[in-house]
């Protein structure tokens, strides 16, 4: 019995170290691969003289590459090769950052930023979440929550750090080099493949049937609609509040979204043991109707701040619930690939949201933006509710 207890203790310590290493790696990968360029963009443009549209377009194209490759990254996880692939992707991402830092022409920088979408697909969140679900099964709630909690500090890390490095006199190229080194550090932190993955490989690659594909798309669209509304608010709300209501401080409002997401995840950590994922998702989808409704009521900065705190808090928890509910409703062989499809749908919807929101606000202003977000969130809620009713009726596993 003592030996068994000692073995269990070692297993628990190994599990904690496994999760913690992935969490720290996610923090560093998100900082280096995703948030670096938005934080660095003003300095890069000022020092290089390159086109804002061209650089931003390359960044957007990189996100598109990320989205398209998500299902393929999931397939790698299904075949049990996630650890090796994530390390290779981390190295490739660091090399691409070095290429961007070395680039003397805009086209070479653009190539590096577009290709960076490949490493992002294999390192950011969804492959990591799939690994946690493979290793911990129904107990993956806490590991995924911890990972999102730690990685959620990326926005709080990257923007002040880039500003401090720039203020210290470093040019944008040296800042990119520093984050290439940080990406290599994240790669070194990644743990080895979990034991037992080889036992899962035999059942990993069975193709999904028509019903499973339809389920995956419907589930993905429910979450993607909420991601669409979130991105539309993020990109258009501050400028619209300045224009329509004269709130000059509104341009700083998006800064609260990161801390609000962390706060939401901390609250989820406290209540997750008492609240099942399904009712929690329904509650949060409903709560995400509140921000556009509150903004409809008018008011000043206080009302806008409250709306974005609610938005950020709910969105932070939805990031956790998506893989957990996916594991419940999209189980079986090839799960990680299906989760990759869900991620792809969400990223594509996030990608088109700024353009659609800009078109709507050009004709209908702030009211049009709020109606758009309300319709997207309402459609996501309706789709999720219908999905859940069918799951209960047909007793999905």
From TrEMBL:
The chain crosses the membrane at residues 18-41, 53-73, 85-103, 109-132, 144-166, 172-190, 217-237, 249-268, 280-298, 304-327, 339-360, 366-387. Coiled coil: none annotated. Keywords: Membrane, Transmembrane, Transmembrane helix. Gene3D superfamilies: MFS general substrate transporter like domains (1.20.1250.20). GO terms for molecular function: transmembrane transporter activity. This is Cyanate permease.
């Amino acid at each position: 019995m003592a030996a068994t207890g000692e073995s269990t203790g070692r297993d628990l310590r190994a599990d904690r170290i496994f999760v913690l290493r992935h969490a720290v790696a996610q923090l560093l990968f998100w900082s280096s691969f995703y948030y670096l360029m938005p934080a660095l963009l003003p300095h890069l443009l000022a020092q290089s003289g390159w086109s804002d549209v061209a650089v931003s377009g390359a960044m957007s194209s990189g996100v598109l590459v990320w989205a398209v490759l998500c299902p393929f990254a999931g397939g790698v996880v299904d075949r049990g090769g996630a650890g090796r692939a994530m390390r290779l992707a981390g190295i490739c991402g660091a090399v691409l950052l070095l290429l961007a830092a070395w680039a003397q022409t805009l086209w070479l920088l653009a190539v590096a930023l577009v290709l960076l979408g490949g490493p992002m697909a294999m390192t950011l969140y969804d492959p990591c979440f799939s690994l946690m679900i493979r290793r911990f099964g129904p107990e993956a709630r806490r590991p995924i929550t911890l990972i999102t909690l730690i990685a959620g500090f990326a926005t709080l890390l990257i923007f002040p750090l880039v500003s401090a490095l720039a203020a210290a006199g470093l040019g944008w190229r040296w800042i990119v080099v520093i984050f290439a080194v940080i990406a290599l550090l994240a790669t070194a932190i990644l743990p080895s493949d979990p034991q037992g993955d080889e036992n899962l490989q035999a059942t990993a690659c069975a193709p999904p049937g028509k019903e499973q594909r339809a389920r995956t798309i419907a589930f993905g669209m429910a979450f993607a609609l909420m991601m669409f509304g979130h991105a539309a608010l993020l990109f258009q709300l501050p400028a619209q509040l300045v224009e329509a209501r004269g709130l000059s401080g509104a341009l700083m409002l998006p800064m609260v979204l990161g801390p609000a997401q962390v706060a939401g995840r901390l609250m989820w950590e406290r209540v997750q043991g008492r609240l099942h994922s399904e009712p929690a998702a329904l509650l949060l989808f409903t709560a995400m109707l509140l921000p556009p409704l509150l903004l409809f009521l008018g008011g000043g900065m206080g009302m806008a701040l409250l709306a974005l705190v609610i938005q950020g808090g709910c969105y932070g928890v939805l990031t956790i619930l998506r893989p957990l509910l996916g594991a419940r409703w999209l189980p079986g062989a090839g799960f990680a690939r299906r989760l990759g499809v869900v991620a792809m749908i969400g990223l594509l919807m996030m990608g088109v949201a700024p353009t659609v929101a800009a078109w709507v606000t050009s004709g209908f202003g702030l009211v049009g933006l709020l109606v758009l977000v309300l319709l997207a969130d309402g459609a996501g809620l309706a789709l999720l509710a219908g999905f859940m009713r069918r799951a209960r009726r047909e007793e999905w596993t």
